[in-house]
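Narrative summary of target 7.
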Amino acid sequence: MSYQPPPHGFRTFLIVWATQSISVFGSALTFFSLTIWLTQVLYPHPEQKVELAFALSWVSLVFALPTVFIAPLAGAWADRHDRKRTMIVTDFASGCLSLVLAALIVTHTLQFWLLLILTLVAAALGAFHAAAFDTSYAMLVPERLLPRANGMMQTIWSLSSILSPAIAAGLIALPALARQGLVPGGLGDWLGQLNDGTPLAITIDAVTFFFASAVLIFLYIPSPSRTDLSADGSKPKKSIWADVKEGALYIWHRRPLLWLLGTFTVANFVGAPIGVFQPLIVKFNLVIDWAARNFTFETALALLSSVFSIGGVVGGLFISTWGGLKARRVYGVLVPMIISGIGQILFGFSSQLYFAAGMVFFVSAMTPILNVHSQAIWQTQVPRELQGRVFSVRRVIAQCTWPLSTALAGWVGGVFNPGMVMAVLGTFLSVFCVTQLFNPYLLHVEDKAYLDEMAAREVAKQAK
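Modeled conformation, tokenized:
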């Protein structure tokens, strides 16, 4: 008998989606504020380009490592434990961590090495939260509504980040405005004592985490039953590492799924450095244009970040309304990747702020479309009780190049023109994806009978 979600599962999903979007909005405030803090406070001078690139890449790298490599453990944990409780605890802990970060900035005791440690802990908490969240909504949403839910999930970061750069830039400027007498009353006196508004943005982030955690307490979110973990003697109790291995073998025995992951491995290698390169491109490649238009660095970077987020929302709304391809979904992955690569090429060559904003819009708009098609393939191929284990291993394989490319970006972005590097990476992605349109293994990725037969042959071969 197929799994039946709870009667009001989609309504519960909408509540969780909305509250987690608010939390993600707070996280986007923190990310943007810390980028400004590194760029304008810690390494403000043009001759510090190498140090700035190094710092941006190390923050991204320290965030990437646990996000990627803790994923298998987090996924196995999500398949074993109550997913709702996992989300409550990780949201609350992340809120406490944000308060610590804000306090360190207010007291002028935040050092770069300490920022890296806090980022590492935040990423580890995020990995466990993501594993529980990503596998929860398949338990809530009927299968016919999964494409719409997938589209909404793809917009969660983009939707929450549309206003966050502008709001963060405004919060950062508040203390300076207060010192000029533009913020009246006792609030102005208090704000004037701060160097900048970075701790204000991070404190808002903490509040959104606490809010998301509190709302979850009142919702019903089911977790799948694991009969293979019974400890009554009828079946052996498996170790958590056995779960990780099981997720890896599921993919290994179905090689077309591995090819699909290989495509995302290339895409993540190409796309991961954008978090390092975008501030550098704004500060060095686009400076003549945005200065002529009376922008500041903060507002120019906020414009690009907001347009990037709007692109993600537009792409997410498009795929949510359309529902995506019902067959040959692999083309819904590859074609948007090709378009994204072309947009990245043009972005890298751009010297004008508005044209660059247009290109990041198209790059971002393609991401929800390709991700929704990929997610639909995985959700239809992997049983729900296995999704935590399989999806976490999937994340490691697909994102293993993220830390590598992020680390390289810190060196390459400081030595070479970051725009040219982005263009070269975009060219590589487009050419690779065109070749994958003719890969016979990858084109079989949606044939469940073919995949299961391949897995059965692999298991029989190993049993001999």
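The CA atoms of residues 73 and 372 lie 24 Å apart.
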